[in-house]
Amino acid sequence: MSGESAFEGDAGSPLPNFNAGQIDLRTVAPALGVRRELQPDYLDYDKGGRGLVVTMFANTGASYLIGTGLGGFYGLREGLAHTPSSRFKVKLNSVLNHCGRHGSRAGNTVGVLAVMYSLYEGLADNVSLSSFWMYWI
Question: Would 94 be classed as within a structural domain?
């Protein structure tokens, strides 16, 4: 019977004694409302906004997604309207072909327009009009 029990009252090393009186709550938990200083803590504000590349990626991604979705819905309507047969497989093939054709074209077109818009917007933000007109006059 003594061989069956491997535990003989030893629970390992005791836990260390954490004296909570020595913990400074101002350094541990400022998010819990314990203030370190009396001045307000403001977030950094970027006056320049997003950069040109970040804006271009955001505009292009959103535009491509919206253009592909709208083109796909237009392709769905065209595929159902111009199906050469009433069989399900032929109808499905026609719908998929039209959705792919119109969705990809619309997405690519709107995505390119978004890239061009972002580049022109970045150019207009970084070039002052007074120096531009002085160059041409």
Answer: yes
pTM of this structure: 0.58
Q: What is the per-residue pLDDT across 20-34, written as a single tens digit (0 to 9) for each?
A: 677 666 666 666 666
* Separation CA 24–CA 94 (nearest Å): 70
Four-point Cα dihedral 18, 21, 27, 32, nearest 10: 100
Please name the residue that has the structure tokens 């109808």: 91
pLDDT in tens, 51-67: 888 889 999 999 999 99
Domain that holds residue 71: 52-124
Residue 24 lies in a domain: no
Per-residue tokens: 124: 């207009």
